[in-house]
């Protein structure tokens, strides 16, 4: 039976594209099914995802005898082009353990990218570095936390046999949080709390839009020199704010002020995967009620710190480290006392982000999951 690769063109194709992972991972005890509605929004075009205001994409399906066996997306982001002209990307790659289908899907993505004038391909990137970048290559025996991917082991050899090499590894660092941090970290936090120039505050959810703009403004500045960075647009900032607002708890999102000026932030999210794991990706007919109740309670065993940033003029200074440790400790206390947390994951963190790796090591976190982004010339 020959593998047939075809672009997604109909509503039925799009449903098949969205539904495939729910079949492939049905028996995987560590996979956490995302809400189908959120996946539909991700790939739904500019009406549901503002990434499409500066990017274009094509989805593909692989079929054998009419049966869907794999999927992939190919995409070009104008903001990526501004930094690296000629770099196209692919992602949302899922496939049965079928080497021929996997190779054909990757080849189809590369062909589409060449047609767009691209000279290099990078992936998986689903769709943006702000979504779920990289392929899980280590940590399959642990469940992913909120907004982190989970992938079958057989996808890695498919990608590498297609000629791709490692571009960058991203790590998720995990640690228990109920007992607090090492004494040397506690001393730093106490010193910061005695410093009258410093204030670490909760976000004010009554001013949500303004607080979101502040935080993501700091983020765009703080991460501007990071590998793979693309700025979040105003439309994306608003979109992210609407998406995250229900799971933002003020005591878990901190802003650090120095002499009254907001200079750093840290966002902690409860592991929503714990709340949606038994919903099968669907909110209807009764999943929405369960999820609403769980969000209202705000209790989760795991927390994730997906975002932390400090303005550039403080980066590399002792003050930056001091503010980071203060925000981490204040958030840890709230997570344990108010939300029942026992563990946390920090990341992803770029493998060569020295300051963040040092902070993770100082609080005795350990790498639990590694994601790899691949690249090759095409």
Rg: 21 Å
Helix amount: 25-40%
Low-pLDDT parts are none
Task: Please identify, by name, the CATH architecture of the largest domain.
Answer: 3-Layer(aba) Sandwich
* Share of β-strand residues: 25-35%
Query: Main sheet, how many strands, which sense, barrel?
Result: 13 strands, mixed
Q: Class of the largest domain in CATH?
A: Alpha Beta
Average pLDDT confidence is 96
Task: Characterize the overall form.
Answer: globular
- Strand count: 15
Instruction: Determine the CATH superfamily of the largest domain.
Output: Gcn5-related N-acetyltransferase (GNAT)
* CATH topology descriptor of the largest domain: Aminopeptidase
How many structural units, i.e. domains?
2
**What order do the helices and strands follow?**
EHHEEHEHEEEEHEHEHHEEHHEHEHE
Secondary structural class: alpha+beta
Number of helices: 12
Q: First CA to last CA: what distance?
A: 28 Å
């Amino acid at each position: 039976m020959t593998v047939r690769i075809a672009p997604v063109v109909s509503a039925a194709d799009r449903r098949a594209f969205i539904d495939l992972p729910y079949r492939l991972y049905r028996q995987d005890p560590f996979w956490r099914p995302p809400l189908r509605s959120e996946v539909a929004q991700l790939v739904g075009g500019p009406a549901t995802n503002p990434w499409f205001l500066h990017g274009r994409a094509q989805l593909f399906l692989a079929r054998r005898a009419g049966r869907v066996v794999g999927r992939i997306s190919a995409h070009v982001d104008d903001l990526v082009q501004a930094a690296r002209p000629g770099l196209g990307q692919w992602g949302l790659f899922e496939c049965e353990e079928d080497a021929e289908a996997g190779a054909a899907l990757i080849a189809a993505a590369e062909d589409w990218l060449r047609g767009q004038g691209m000279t290099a391909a990078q992936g998986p990137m689903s769709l943006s570095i702000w979504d779920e970048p990289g392929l899980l290559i280590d940590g399959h025996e642990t469940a992913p936390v909120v907004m982190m991917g989970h992938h079958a082991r057989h996808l890695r050899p498919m990608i590498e046999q297609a000629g791709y090499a490692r571009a960058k590894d991203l790590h998720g660092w995990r640690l228990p949080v109920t007992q607090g941090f090492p004494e040397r970290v506690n001393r730093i936090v106490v010193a910061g709390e005695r410093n009258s120039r410093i204030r670490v505050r909760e976000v004010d959810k009554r001013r949500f839009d303004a607080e979101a703009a502040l935080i993501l403004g700091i983020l765009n500045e703080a991460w501007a020199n990071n590998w793979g960075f693309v700025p979040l647009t105003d439309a994306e900032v608003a979109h992210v704010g609407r998406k995250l607002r229900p799971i933002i708890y003020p005591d878990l999102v901190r802003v650090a002020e120095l002499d009254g000026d907001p200079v750093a932030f840290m966002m902690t999210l409860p592991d929503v995967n714990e709340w949606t794991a038994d919903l099968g990706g669907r909110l209807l007919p009764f999943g929405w009620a369960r999820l609403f109740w769980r969000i209202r309670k705000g209790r989760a065993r795991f927390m994730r710190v997906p975002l932390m940033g400090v303005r550039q003029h403080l980066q590399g200074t002792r003050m930056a480290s001091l503010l980071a440790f203060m925000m981490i400790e204040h958030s840890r206390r709230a997570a344990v006392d108010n939300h029942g947390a026992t563990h946390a994951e920090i990341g992803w963190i770029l493998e060569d982000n020295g300051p963040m790796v040092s902070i993770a090591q100082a609080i005795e976190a350990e790498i639990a999951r590694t994601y790899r982004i691949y690249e090759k010339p095409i």
